[in-house]
Specification:
Largest sheet of chain A: 5 strands, antiparallel
Shape of chain A: globular
Strand content of chain B: 15-25%
Oligomer: heterodimer
Number of strands of chain A: 10
Largest sheet of chain B: 10 strands, mixed
Distance between the termini of chain B: 28 Å
Number of strands of chain B: 16
Number of helices of chain B: 13
Structural class of chain A: alpha/beta
Number of helices of chain A: 8
Radius of gyration of chain B: 31 Å
Strand content of chain A: 15-25%
Distance between the termini of chain A: 46 Å
């Protein structure tokens, strides 16, 4: 049996400094190749959870395991490298370096991930292939990212997340900046490409209507307890 | 790829980056320009006299002797007797010797009595000789050859009469014996341009009726003066060329030990070195000020990077999400600053040469300072390297702040 793409166990985390926002997650798993929708309103610990999964923040107690590797056992630099190698990240919007070309944006994670670069083999060709598969115009690669429409930018972000086929794709409300029609096409393309790459997909959203497309839908408050000190 | 992205990031902020680069470029131009002017002025001073091995005068200070004999600044404390002059001229080491007699003036310009040999042996700017631009040399007793600035300032042309005043800034004129402008010397960029040259005998002639610095009552007719032996009793200084450079120090020692009269012989180059030590303080101050301008430009750049950090937090978050370490972000900002400084330095160098190209004739005409257009010296290249390194160091402060921000923000920035 292959290791789950993502596994959280008895995780406790408190943001350092004042504010005292604490989060605990007794157990949560995403199987390899599975697509999961996490439903939660903003302020429900969504960002903190994603930070933990991506290795930006480390749990005070418990284990965060991505593809069988315990992130707590890695140093800060190693976690950054691990994120580049194993996780593709898609944000809500402003995903791209506006001044860089689309190609440079797509290849950026490979710059920090030699294994993933090797997996992608010919990076530019792979980028071109992904762009074509995501219905982006042919000349998009040489275009400056800032010149693209929001919808196109989000699809470039998908290409960037998928290049070199990382085992886990983390998407943070990637459709909220898109209108309903574009949302639908975007999700279809995202699912198709994620499936083709064989990656797991963890998407966070507040929009329950997206649910039917996913293997599993989980409410954030069912797996995570948050606590905010008034002090 | 990182370098390309850094360059593209700078290009995307063309206006602010451009201003910063321009400030750095101008400060570098100023810094190098001051350096060029300084070395140019030194070289021009050094070029004022070349080919002369020794300057002989009454015993005083080397700098003083150099200043009054070559630069016409200040006055001689004492004279050399004609006998001493002839003793020196008779030495076997001496190839040529040119006497100089100073002390009178015409308007604001000094009058120098000398022999026609002056035109043969006086050299400037690496061996260039004096050229008579208009007219001829000294032929008659009352002939004068004037420098280019004298002619330009007073509007003289060949054939015009000139009356020499006694002393400097004096009201007593040698109006009984007027001179005639026989020739005008081509512009040299040396004090010769501001000199009225007459023959040594003429200096003697106009002082026939003078005793102890005052005019006696009588007025000897010109015809009588012309008939006289006008060999002077004393001169102010002499320029000496030796047969072999190896003999310079021997002759210098002989002159300094001359028993009949306290004399002094100096090497122009050595005296110039002493002069530099005196003006060195002003030079250092000038360099200091221009260095401060560079520092100001770099602080401006630092402020610009600080100001941009907030609007670039999103960009930093993207870098972090893609797997960049906080140190990569620090490096990125330092790289950007280094690029800006490098472009600024190269642009500054370009502006300097443009300025030199345009300004060279003007500076030469106005100040007699010849600024040679040469490739940058090692010292200047070091200066540029220091500016770039200093920019990298200055950018560390905002870069460290970006490092901290990206640690705190991670990949989640709410804008």
């Amino acid at each position: 049996m292959t290791a789950p793409a993502l596994s959280l166990k008895d995780v406790i985390f408190t943001w350092p400094g004042r504010g005292g926002f604490a989060l605990s997650c007794p157990a949560f798993q995403v199987a390899a190749g599975e697509s999961v929708l996490l439903l939660g309103a903003s302020g429900s610990g969504k960002s903190t959870l994603l930070s933990l999964i991506c290795g930006i923040a480390t749990a005070d107690a418990g284990q965060v395991t991505v593809g069988g590797t315990d992130l707590g056992g890695l140093g800060a630099g190693a976690r950054d490298r691990f994120r580049a190698e194993h996780i593709g990240v898609i944000f809500q919007q402003f995903n791209l370096l506006p001044y860089a070309s689309v190609l440079d944006n797509i290849l950026l994670p490979l710059r920090f991930a030699p294994q993933r670069r090797a997996r992608a083999r010919d990076g530019p060709a792979q980028a071109a292939h992904l762009c074509a598969a995501l219905d982006l115009p042919e000349d998009v690669l040489t275009t400056q990212a800032a010149r693209l429409s929001v919808g196109q930018q989000q699809r470039v972000a998908v290409a960037r997340a998928l290049i070199g086929a990382p085992p886990l794709i983390v998407a943070d409300e990637p459709t909220s900046a898109l209108d309903a029609a574009t949302q639908d096409t975007f999700l279809s393309l995202l699912f198709k490409q994620t499936k083709q790459a064989g990656s797991s997909l963890l998407m966070v959203s507040h929009d329950a209507r997206l649910g039917p497309r996913f293997d599993r839908v989980i409410r954030l408050e069912d797996i995570v307890n948050t606590q905010r000190d008034a002090a | 790829m990182i370098l390309r992205l850094a360059a593209q990031s700078l290009m995307a902020r063309a206006l602010t980056v451009g201003m910063t680069v321009l400030a750095i470029a101008l400060s570098v131009t100023l810094f190098l320009g001051v350096e060029k002017l300084r070395t140019g002025a030194r070289a021009s001073f050094a070029d004022t006299i070349s080919g002369t091995d020794l300057i002989v005068g009454a015993r005083s200070g080397p700098v003083q002797l150099l200043l009054y004999s070559v630069f016409r600044i200040g006055n001689a404390t004492n004279n050399i007797t004609w006998q001493s002059y002839q003793d020196i001229a008779a030495r076997s080491e001496v190839d040529w010797i040119v006497p100089i007699s100073l002390g009178d003036s015409h308007r604001q310009f000094r009058v120098m009595g000398t022999t026609p040999a002056f035109f043969d042996h006086y050299q400037f700017r690496g061996g260039r000789s004096l050229e008579i631009a208009q007219g001829a040399g000294l032929n008659d007793l009352y002939d004068t050859v004037i420098g280019a600035d004298v002619a330009a300032t007073l509007g003289y042309s060949v054939g015009d009469p000139i009356v020499v005043s006694h002393g400097i800034a004096s009201f007593t004129a040698h109006d009984d014996q007027p001179f005639r402008v026989a020739g005008i010397i081509a512009k040299t960029g040396t004090p010769v341009d501001r000199t009225v040259v007459v023959s040594l005998e003429a200096i003697e002639a106009i002082h026939v009726d003078w005793q102890g610095g005052a005019k006696t009552g009588q007025s000897t007719p010109v015809e009588v003066i012309r008939a006289r032996d006008l060999t002077p009793n004393a001169i102010t200084a002499a320029l000496v060329g030796v047969n072999s450079r190896l003999q310079i120090f021997g002759l210098q020692r002989w002159i300094n030990d001359y028993a009949e009269e306290p004399l002094m012989a100096i090497l122009p180059g050595v005296a110039l070195q002493e002069l530099w030590q005196i003006v060195g303080v002003a030079e250092t101050a000038l360099i200091g000020v221009s260095a401060m301008v560079v520092v100001t430009a770099l602080i401006g750049m630092m402020a610009m990077i600080f100001a941009s950090l907030n609007e670039r937090r999103r960009e930093m978050a993207i870098w972090r999400a893609m797997g960049a370490r906080p140190t990569t972000i620090l490096g990125l900002l330092v790289l950007e600053a280094t690029l800006m400084a490098a472009v600024g330095a190269v642009l500054g160098l370009g502006l300097l040469y443009l300025g030199l190209f345009v300004g060279q004739p003007m500076v030469d005409a106005a100040f007699g300072i010849w600024l040679p257009i040469t490739p940058p010296t090692l010292r200047e290249l070091w200066g540029l390297a220091i500016v770039i390194v200093a920019a990298a160091l200055a950018s560390l402060l905002p870069a460290i702040r970006a490092y901290r921000l990206s640690l705190a923000d991670g990949m989640m920035v709410r804008i």
